[in-house]
């Protein structure tokens, strides 16, 4: 799945497109990772839109 | 009494000129043309809106728009204009996240929509601020303020197309439960790559 985020820095005015091409669902095999943090970051980047896109 | 008579203001408006107030000069209720001198512009700018973000999506549709480098605590208020475009066949619900906090339950929103069909209200414990219907646009403005140590709050007024209704009004409020200074705002749709090319966000701060 290709997903994109438009990024703007208000301080510098820099604009750029971030592209992410991944296959969903994302499977996290390392059990010590905080799943809530992973989901939070992936949502923020627009890589996933719901929690079901990440499995452990 | 040191004030400008109402009749003078009326006459001035009738000629299409705006009264100006220049606190630093000691004048109040002064009427006249705005003089475009460097000093005059500088004085007025000290009490004006300053644009900090003006961006439009280009290249391809995106899932989210991430704005960093903000400082809501330093600004008295942000005034945000947006025009979002959805060219897909699926409604896109946009959430506004502060400082990278995407836990929906850390936000609250209340609002209502009004159109010729009727008026309805809704609220939820999440961060969604507006929606962009399928093959439609939503345009609106939002104010966001956060005096030091308080939760940031926004009020939004939007004109949106919603199914068969071409022109529906949405008004809503949003808060983040944290009192941390807002330095980042991320607008994320619940559909991938559904914020279309040309979607635009402009942010002014009050200085």
Task: Write a structural description.
With 56 residues, chain A is of the alpha+beta class. Chain A has one helix at residues 35-44, and strands spanning 2-9, 15-21, 26-27, 54-55. A two-stranded antiparallel ribbon of chain A has the order 1-2. A two-stranded parallel sheet of chain A has the order 3-4. Chain B is mainly β. Chain B is 8% helix and 45% strand. In chain B, the strands form two sheets. An eight-stranded antiparallel sheet of chain B has the order 1-12-3-8-9-10-5-6, with no helix packed on it. The longest helix of chain B has 9 residues, at 6-14. Chains A and B meet through strand 1 and helix 1 of A and strand 1, strand 2 and strand 11 of B.
Quick description:
Chain A is α+β, with helices and mostly antiparallel strands.
User: What is the residue-mean pLDDT of chain B, rounded to a whole number?
Assistant: 83
Following the backbone from N to C, one meets helices and strands of chain A in this order, namely EEEHE
Q: Indicate the low-confidence ranges of chain A by residue numbers.
A: none
Number of strands of chain B: 12
Oligomer: heterodimer
Largest beta sheet of chain B: what is the strand line-up? 1-12-3-8-9-10-5-6
| Rough outline of chain B | globular
Give the amount of beta strand of chain A, in percent.
25-35%
Radius of gyration of chain A: 13 Å
What descriptors fit this protein?
heterodimer; A: 56 residues; alpha+beta; two-stranded parallel sheet; 34% strand; elongated; B: 207 residues; mainly beta; 8-stranded antiparallel β-sheet; 4-stranded antiparallel β-sheet; 12 strands; globular; disordered N terminus
Topology:
The complex is a heterodimer of chains A (56) and B (207).
Chain A: E1 2-9, E2 15-21, E3 26-27, H1 35-44, E4 54-55
Parallel strand pairs in A: 3-4
Antiparallel strand pairs in A: 1-2
Chain B: H1 6-14, H2 38-45, E1 49-56, E2 64-68, E3 78-86, E4 92-98, E5 107-115, E6 118-124, E7 128-132, E8 136-145, E9 153-162, E10 165-176, E11 185-189, E12 200-206
Antiparallel strand pairs in B: 1-12, 2-11, 3-8, 3-12, 4-7, 4-11, 5-6, 5-10, 8-9, 9-10
């Amino acid at each position: 799945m290709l997903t994109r985020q438009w990024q703007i820095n208000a301080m510098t005015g820099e604009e750029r497109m971030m592209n992410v091409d991944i296959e969903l669902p994302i499977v996290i095999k390392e059990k010590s990772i905080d799943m809530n943090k992973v989901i939070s970051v992936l949502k923020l980047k627009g890589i996933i839109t719901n929690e079901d896109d990440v499995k452990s | 009494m040191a004030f400008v008579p109402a009749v003078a203001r009326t006459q001035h408006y009738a000629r299409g000129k705006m009264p100006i107030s220049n606190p630093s000069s000691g004048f109040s209720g002064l009427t006249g043309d705005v003089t475009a001198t460097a000093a005059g512009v500088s004085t007025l700018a000290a009490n004006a809106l300053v644009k900090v973000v003006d961006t439009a999506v280009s290249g391809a549709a995106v899932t989210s728009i991430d704005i960093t480098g903000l400082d809501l605590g330093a600004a008295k208020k942000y005034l945000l204009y947006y025009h979002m475009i959805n060219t897909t066949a699926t409604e896109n619900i946009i959430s506004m996240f502060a400082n990278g906090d995407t836990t929906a339950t850390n936000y609250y929103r209340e609002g209502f929509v009004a159109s010729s069909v009727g008026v309805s209200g809704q609220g939820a414990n999440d961060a969604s601020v507006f929606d962009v219907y399928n093959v439609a646009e939503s345009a609106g403005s939002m104010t966001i303020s956060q005096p030091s140590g308080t939760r940031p709050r926004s009020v939004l007024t939007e004109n949106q197309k919603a199914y068969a209704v071409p022109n529906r009004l949405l008004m809503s409020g949003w808060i983040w439960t944290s009192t941390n200074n807002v330095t980042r705002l991320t607008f994320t749709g619940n559909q991938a790559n559904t914020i279309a090319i040309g979607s635009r966000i402009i942010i002014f701060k009050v200085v």
